Design the sequence.
C-alpha cells in the first residue's frame, strides 16, 4: 500500500515536471519565434539613437520640365550631449564658429536629451562653417545633410509658388496647398549606445530618405518671364498701385502664365507685408470690369437673336435716358448712326444699354451666371474670391443698363478670362487650373458646362472683337498678319464711401490669338496708373500686344493674312514687309521698296543682297540698304 502511494507520487511529480518543461519550451518558442521581432525592436529602441537625415522636397517644374523651384543641399548641426565629455570647450568653440553666445550654446551641449538639434543657429550651414566644425573632431558632435529650398527666379510666380519655412514646411501658395505630397520621408543614421548614452562599438544602420513628389505646372516659364517683364515695365513706368496679367489656353483652362504686382522675393518673404504676400490679385481682387464685360452682353444678345450686328443700327447721341438716370458714352458728342459691329468697335455704352434692354434682366443674368460670374472658378489656388452680382430681384432698369456695359458689378480677373475663353471656344466653360501633375497623378482639363452659346454665336463674337483690334478701341494690340481679337476696359474704382473715386481707374484689355482658331487668351489690367491717358486701349492694349508678340515668337506661330485689314490712321505706326528684290534691277528694286528710304551700295545695276533681308517687317520710312553687284 505504501509502495503504491509512493509510486503514484513519483508519477505525479514526473508528470508535473514534464508539464512544466513543456510549458517552458512553449514559452521559449513563443519568445524566440513569435515575439522575437517585437522584443528585438524594444531592445533596439533601448540601445539605439537616431540622427535624422532630411529628405529633399519635391521640385516644382513648368510644363516643359524647366525647374522653377529646386533644393540646395546644406548641413545641419546635431549634438548627443551624453557623448560630449568636455562640454565647456565644445560650447566655447561652437559658439565662436556659429557666432552665438557661449551661454546659448552651452544650453545645447548640456541639455538632458538623447539627441539635440541645434536650432536655428545650426541649421542650413554652408560648407565653410561645416568644415570648421568637422575639423574639431569632437565626440557627440554630428553634421548631417539638410535640404534648403532654392527659388532661382526670386519674385517670379511668387504668389503662385509660395514659400517654405526653415523646416521646409509649406507656408503659402502651392508649397502650402500640396505640402503633404511635396514633403518626402526623412531618413536616419541609427547608432547604438549604453544606458548612459555612450556610443557602443556596433555597426551603424543607414535608412535612406525618400524624396518628395515633383509638382508639374501648366505654366510655360518662357511665357511667364515675358509676361512679368512687360507687366513690371508698365507697373514701374506708370507708378501703378497694382497690375495683373494672365495667359490661358482657351480650349482647356490651362494657365500658361499668371502675374500679380506688387510681387515679393520668396527667399526673403519676411521683408514684405502680409498684404503683399497674401494677395494674388489675379484671383483675389474684386473690381468693376468696365467695357471688357461687354463681351458677355454681346454674346448673349447674338445668341438670343435680339440683334443682327451687321444690319441693325443704333444712333448714338452721346447719352441715353434710363428711368430717372442719364448714362453717357465716353465720346460726349456720340458716335452717330452705327451698326452694332461699330458699337462694339467704339465701345459705345448707350449701344450696349440697348442690348441689355433687348435681352431683359432674366436672360442677361442667365448668361452671366452660366459663364461663372458670382462664384469661384475653382482654380487650384488658395484665396480665390467670388465677385459680386446684383440679386435679380434688386435689378431695375438702371442696374440692367449699367450691368450691360460692365458697371455696378464686381468680378475677378480669372473669372473674366474663364468666361471669355468659353465665349470664343464655342461655348465650353472650363475650370482654370495650374497643376498638371504631381507624383503619378495627372490632372486633365475639366469641362464644367458646354454649349452655353452656339458655334455660330462664337464666330460672330470673334469677328466683332477682331474688328475692335483692327479698327476700334483695341487698335494698339494690332499685329500685322496676325488675327487678334480683343476688348478694352476702363473702369472707375469705388472708394470706401461707396462712391466712385475721381481719376482712379482700372485700365484693362482682354484679347485672344488667333481669332479664327483661338488658342491663347491674354488679360492685362493696371490699377490706377499715372501719367497716361486713362483708357485701357492706351495703357493696357500695348502690353498685351507685346505679350502676344512673345507668344508668337516662343511658339513660332505662322502668319495669317486673312484677317480683317486695318485702316491706318494718321498717327498709326505702319509696317512694311520687305519684298524679294534679289536679282532685280536698281529701278525695279526702288519701285518695290516704295514707302522705305533706300540706300544703294555699289555701282552695279543688279541687286545681290539687302539689309534688312527679304520678308523682314520694318516701320514705314525705315532705311534699307540695297547691295548691288
Sequence:
Amino acid at each position: 500500500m505504501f509502495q503504491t502511494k509512493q509510486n503514484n507520487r513519483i508519477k505525479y511529480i514526473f508528470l508535473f515536471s514534464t508539464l512544466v518543461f513543456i510549458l517552458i519550451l512553449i514559452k521559449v518558442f513563443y519568445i524566440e519565434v513569435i515575439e522575437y521581432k517585437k522584443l528585438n525592436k524594444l531592445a533596439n529602441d533601448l540601445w539605439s539613437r537616431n540622427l535624422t537625415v532630411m529628405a529633399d522636397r519635391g521640385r516644382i517644374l513648368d510644363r516643359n520640365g524647366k525647374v522653377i523651384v529646386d533644393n540646395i543641399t546644406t548641413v545641419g548641426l546635431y549634438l548627443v550631449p551624453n557623448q560630449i565629455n568636455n562640454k565647456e570647450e565644445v560650447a566655447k568653440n561652437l559658439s565662436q564658429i556659429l557666432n552665438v553666445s557661449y551661454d546659448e550654446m552651452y544650453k545645447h551641449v548640456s541639455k538632458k536629451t538623447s539627441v539635440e538639434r541645434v536650432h536655428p543657429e545650426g541649421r542650413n550651414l554652408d560648407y565653410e562653417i561645416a568644415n570648421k566644425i568637422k575639423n574639431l573632431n569632437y565626440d557627440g558632435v554630428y553634421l548631417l545633410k539638410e535640404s534648403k529650398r532654392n527659388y532661382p527666379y526670386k519674385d517670379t510666380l511668387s504668389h503662385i509658388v509660395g514659400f517654405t519655412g526653415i523646416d521646409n514646411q509649406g507656408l503659402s501658395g502651392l508649397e502650402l496647398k500640396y505640402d503633404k505630397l511635396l514633403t518626402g520621408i526623412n531618413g536616419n543614421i541609427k547608432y547604438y549606445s549604453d544606458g548612459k548614452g555612450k556610443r557602443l562599438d556596433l555597426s551603424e544602420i543607414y535608412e535612406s530618405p525618400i524624396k518628395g513628389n515633383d509638382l508639374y505646372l501648366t505654366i510655360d516659364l518662357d511665357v511667364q518671364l515675358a509676361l512679368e517683364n512687360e507687366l513690371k515695365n508698365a507697373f514701374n513706368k506708370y507708378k501703378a498701385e497694382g497690375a495683373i496679367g494672365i495667359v490661358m489656353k482657351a480650349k482647356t483652362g490651362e494657365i500658361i502664365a499668371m502675374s500679380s504686382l506688387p510681387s515679393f522675393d520668396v527667399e526673403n518673404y519676411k521683408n514684405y507685408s502680409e498684404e503683399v504676400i497674401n494677395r494674388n490679385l489675379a484671383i483675389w481682387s474684386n473690381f468693376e470690369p468696365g467695357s471688357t464685360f461687354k463681351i458677355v452682353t454681346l454674346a448673349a444678345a447674338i445668341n438670343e437673336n435680339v440683334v443682327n450686328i451687321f444690319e441693325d443700327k443704333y444712333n448714338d447721341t452721346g447719352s441715353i435716358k434710363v428711368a430717372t438716370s442719364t448714362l453717357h458714352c465716353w465720346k460726349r458728342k456720340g458716335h452717330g448712326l452705327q451698326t452694332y459691329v461699330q458699337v462694339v468697335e467704339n465701345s459705345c455704352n448707350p449701344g450696349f444699354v440697348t442690348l441689355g434692354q433687348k435681352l431683359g434682366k432674366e436672360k442677361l443674368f442667365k448668361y452671366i451666371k452660366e459663364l461663372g460670374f458670382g462664384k469661384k472658378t475653382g482654380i487650384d489656388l488658395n484665396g480665390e474670391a467670388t465677385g459680386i452680382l446684383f440679386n435679380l430681384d434688386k435689378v431695375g432698369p438702371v442696374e440692367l443698363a449699367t450691368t450691360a456695359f460692365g458697371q455696378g458689378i464686381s468680378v475677378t480677373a480669372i473669372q473674366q478670362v474663364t468666361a471669355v475663353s468659353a465665349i470664343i471656344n464655342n461655348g465650353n466653360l472650363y475650370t482654370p487650373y495650374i497643376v498638371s501633375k504631381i507624383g503619378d497623378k495627372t490632372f486633365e482639363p475639366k469641362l464644367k458646362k458646354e454649349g452655353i452659346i452656339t458655334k455660330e454665336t462664337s464666330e460672330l463674337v470673334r469677328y466683332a472683337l477682331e474688328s475692335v483690334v483692327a479698327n476700334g478701341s483695341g487698335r494698339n494690340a494690332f499685329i500685322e498678319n496676325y488675327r487678334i481679337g480683343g476688348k478694352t476696359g476702363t473702369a472707375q474704382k469705388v472708394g470706401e464711401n461707396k462712391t466712385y473715386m475721381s481719376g482712379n481707374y482700372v485700365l484693362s484689355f482682354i484679347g485672344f490669338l488667333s481669332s479664327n482658331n483661338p488658342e491663347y487668351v491674354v488679360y492685362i489690367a493696371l490699377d490706377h496708373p499715372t501719367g497716361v491717358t486713362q483708357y485701357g486701349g492706351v495703357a493696357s492694349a500695348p502690353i498685351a500686344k507685346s505679350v502676344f508678340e512673345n507668344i508668337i515668337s516662343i511658339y513660332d506661330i505662322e502668319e495669317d493674312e486673312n484677317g480683317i485689314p486695318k485702316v491706318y490712321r494718321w498717327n498709326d505706326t505702319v509696317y512694311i514687309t520687305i519684298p524679294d528684290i534679289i536679282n532685280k534691277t536698281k529701278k525695279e528694286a526702288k519701285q518695290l521698296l516704295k514707302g522705305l528710304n533706300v540706300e544703294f551700295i555699289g555701282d552695279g545695276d543688279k541687286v545681290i543682297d539687302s539689309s534688312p533681308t527679304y520678308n523682314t517687317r520694318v516701320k514705314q520710312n525705315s532705311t534699307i540698304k540695297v547691295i548691288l553687284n
